[in-house]
Specification:
There is one protein chain. The chain is α/β, with parallel strands linked by helices and 190 residues long. Helices cover 31% and strands 31% of the residues. The chain has a nine-stranded mixed β-sheet, sandwiched between helices. It is globular and about 50 Å long.
C-alpha cells in the first residue's frame, strides 16, 4: 500500500510544474499541505542558480554559479553551481522537523522537490527526510532524479521502498498524468 508519491524523470521534463499544479489542486480542496520546491534563477536569459521556495512563499538560495577562481575546496559543488548549504538547511529543516507534529486526524501532505544531488550534501536533510517517510501522519509528494552516474543512496532507497508510488514523467505523459498523481496522493491519505 503506497504511503508516499514521487515523480521522477529527466531534468526539464516538467516534474516541478506538475508538483506545483498538484499543490494548487490539493490546496484548493482544503487539504493541509506544506513543503518546498526548487526554482531556477535566471539573469539576462541564463540560469545562474536555484532557489528553494516554500509553499508559504518564502524564498532562499540553494545554489549559484561560481567563477572557478572563487571556489575553495570546502565548497559543495554540483557542476558549475556552489550549494549554499546553510541557507538550504535554515529554510527546509524547520519545516521538515515540524511536519509530524500536530494532532490533525487527517494526514498532511509535505512537498519535497527535490531530493537531488544538491540537497543531499546535507546530512541533516537526509535524516529528516527518512524520519518523515517513516512517520505515519504525513504523505510525501516529492521528486527524485533519474539514475545517472553514481547512485544517490537516499534516492535509490526511496525508489525501492514498498510504500512509495513512483511516476515516471516524460514529455509524452506530462500533460495527462496530473489526475493520476492526485488520485495516488488521495489514496495515500486514507
Amino acid at each position: 500500500m503506497a504511503r508516499h508519491v514521487f515523480l521522477t524523470g529527466p531534468p526539464g521534463v516538467g516534474k516541478t510544474t506538475l508538483i506545483q499544479k498538484a499543490t494548487q489542486a490539493l490546496k484548493s480542496s482544503g487539504i493541509p499541505i506544506d513543503g518546498f520546491y526548487t526554482e531556477e534563477v535566471r539573469e539576462g536569459g541564463r540560469r545562474i542558480g536555484f532557489d528553494v521556495v516554500t509553499l508559504s512563499g518564502m524564498r532562499g538560495p540553494l545554489s549559484r554559479v561560481s567563477p572557478d577562481s572563487a571556489t575553495s575546496r570546502r565548497d559543495y559543488r554540483v557542476g558549475q553551481y556552489v550549494v549554499d548549504l546553510v541557507s538550504f538547511e535554515q529554510f527546509v529543516l524547520p519545516m521538515l522537523r515540524n511536519v509530524n507534529h500536530g494532532s490533525d486526524a487527517e494526514k498532511k501532505i509535505f512537498v519535497i522537490d527535490e531530493i537531488g544531488k544538491m540537497e543531499l550534501f546535507s546530512q541533516a536533510f537526509i535524516q529528516a527526510v527518512r524520519q518523515t517517510l517513516t512517520g505515519s501522519g504525513t504523505v510525501v509528494l516529492g521528486t527524485i532524479p533519474v539514475p545517472k552516474g553514481k547512485p544517490l543512496d537516499l534516492v535509490e532507497e526511496i525508489r525501492s521502498r514498498k510504500d512509495v508510488k513512483v511516476f515516471n514523467v516524460s514529455k509524452e505523459n506530462r500533460n495527462c498524468i496530473l489526475q493520476d498523481i492526485l488520485a495516488a496522493v488521495e489514496s495515500c491519505r486514507k
